[in-house]
Design goal:
Blueprint (H helix, E strand, L loop, with lengths): L1 H20 L2
Length: 23
């Protein structure tokens, strides 16, 4: 279960961090 969470986190985190960071 932890492995799946790590794979799903980067995709969702990148979508939230990219627009917020402005990069």
């Amino acid at each position: 279960m932890e492995g799946a969470i790590i794979v799903f986190f980067p995709e969702e985190l990148k979508n939230y961090m990219v627009p917020n960071s402005g990069m």
